[in-house]
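During the first year of the project, the team set up a workflow for recording each protein of interest as an amino acid sequence followed immediately by a discrete structure-token representation. This format lets reviewers and collaborators read both layers of information side by side without switching files. As required by the reporting guidelines, we include two representative entries from the current panel. The first entry is reproduced here exactly as it appears in our internal archive.
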Amino acid sequence: MKRWGSALFPLSLLLILTGLTFWLRYATELPQTKHDGKLRHDPDYIITDAILRKIDQTGRLKYTLSATDIRHYPDDESTDMLKPNLVHFQAKSPR
């Protein structure tokens, strides 16, 4: 009986260490990244020489936004404008 007791302790210690090793490997494993192109920062559309005009309900021009180049990036939903120019028109106040 004494033989089993002395052999059982190192064997159980070895099994516990093996289990902890597999658990640690699983816990620290990085998730797989997909290479489907969604992580790329490429524009999905490009507009050159763009002019946007906003009018109010009465038909008067409120502002004009123009840019030489507009690029939209779908990965983070950002939009970049090259040389933007915003002109805001104010209604004449009565005197």
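The second entry, processed by the same pipeline in the following quarter, appears below.
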Amino acid sequence: MIRYHGRNREYEATTKRDIALVNKACDFLKDEHSVPPNWRQDLNRNMVKTEDGRWVLAPRPQVVDTHHENIEPHLEQIGILSPK
């Protein structure tokens, strides 16, 4: 991915491979890259391949937690809320 080009020269990217592939079967990347270690398993540890070929964490589904409109009687029944 990044190649050494000699003394007193900067490292340069030599391919367009996704950095997430480094952690596919190991744990070499720093945490700042947000790529889980050993992610190439069942369900790829929630990693998905994008249209441009990059591997990223899949968006998490949003959980909508709804409550019953008249919850007070239920809370009283289980002893969390005292009767009025």
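For the second entry, the following points were noted during internal review. The chain has a mean pLDDT of 79. Strands lie at 2-3, 12-13, 47-49, 55-57. Both points are flagged for discussion at the upcoming steering committee meeting.
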